[in-house]
Amino acid sequence: MRLAFIPNTHAMKLSGWLILLAGLWCSMHPLHAAEKNTTAPRMANEIVLTAGSPQVASLKVEAVTEIPVPVTEPLNGKIMLDENRTARIFSPVAGRAMAIKAQVGDQVKAGQALLVMDSPDVGGAVADARKAQVDLQLKQQVLERNRMLMEGGVLAKKEVETSQADFSLARAETARASARLKNLGVTTSANDTYSLRSPISGTVVDRKINPGSEIRPDAADPLFIVTDPTNLWASIDLPERDLSRITQGQKVSVQVDAYPDEVFSGEVKTIGVMVDTTTRRIPVRCVIESKGKLKPEMYARITPLDNSQHKVIRLPNSALITEGLYSYVFVEERPLHFRKRVVTLDVQRREYATVKQGLKAGERVVTGGAILLNSDLSVNK
To answer: Which residues pair with 99 in a beta bridge?
Structure first.
């Protein structure tokens, strides 16, 4: 015998009303509303940090700027003295140092004494000049007397000619001795004391002499180096493969570790005419604007720039997030509010990349800690 199931219509209506009331109660309950808000999804590719969070301390955010297009990767170089404004001063005579008149770092003028020394060579040169002058006066007197005697018929013309030759020799010797004194910068009234003077105005950047030291004119190292430190050169050992990208007069940018956030400008001055057979590199010298900050012998990173007026935005590779075929950066739209944005790269080098599209000059980009932000964004998704 089969039993038929008869639904209870009143019970079903009552259950429906209970479910509807329960739904209304849940939607109006504040705790449930709060939970609903906390789980609401954020806008895609957007992350917001709170002040004082550990992520904020690990981020480095910088405003991007436009630069001329680089034509090569940064090249290794070194800051050098401008040899056109540098004097390497040796002593022209032997002797012994008595007093040092200039120290490293001192500003000196052209003709200012750097060193006082006792030099027998100077004494000998002064004595030779005095002797030559006396001998010249004597030979001149003999010549004048012999001419008078020849005019009176007492002396033969041959004797006058001999006196004339002796006088010419004495005059030549006097000129030689005087030129020697002029070269040393002393006069016939001087003694054995000699002052070594700077030929140019500038700053003493090196000194290799102490009081009492023996001085030789054939020394290997200069006693003093005087230069204008505001005018410097940058030297590049250019790889042979990059020679076609460098021209005389081309602009360059220079960076050093001492000022990592500052870029110095310069210009290619000379390009070597030969390739070094050992290193296969070409020496290139650039004139740079040191702004009073760069020092000789600093190592530098020198980037040749395109001569055109076209500019691009340069980013360190630490700012880039690569996912598949696309590159992204995190842009700070407002404080603690970051958005992941796709960018189109122009050129990517070993340390930096240039951006062709996706960023504007002045926008603030995460250059340190971008990987951390990207990880947090992936977790939140």
So the answer is: 116
Residue 315, Cβ density class (10 Å: 0-12 exposed, 13-18 middle, ≥19 buried): buried
Q: Which residue has the higher pLDDT, 380 or 16?
A: 380
Asked whether residue 294 falls in the same domain as residue 250, the answer is: yes
User: What CATH number does the domain containing 179 carry?
Assistant: 1.10.287.470
> Dihedral (C-alpha) 60, 66, 71, 72: value to the nearest 10 degrees?
-10
Model confidence at 176: pLDDT above 60: yes
- The secondary structure of 232-247 as a DSSP string is EEEEEEEEGGGGGG--
Over residues 298-351, the pLDDT tens digits come to: 999 999 988 877 788 888 889 999 988 899 999 999 888 999 999 998 888 777
pTM, full prediction: 0.63
Split into its structural domains, the chain has a count of 4
Listed in sequence order, the residues at least 6 apart from 308 whose beta carbon sits closer than 8 Å to its beta carbon are 68, 69
Q: What are phi and psi of 334, to 5 degrees?
A: -155, 170
CA 355/CA 167 separation, integer angstroms: 83
Full domain range(s) for residue 179: 123-184
The CATH number of residue 339's host domain is 2.40.420.20
- Please classify residue 129 by burial: count the beta carbons closer than 10 Å to its beta carbon, then call 0-12 exposed, 13-18 middle and 19+ buried: buried
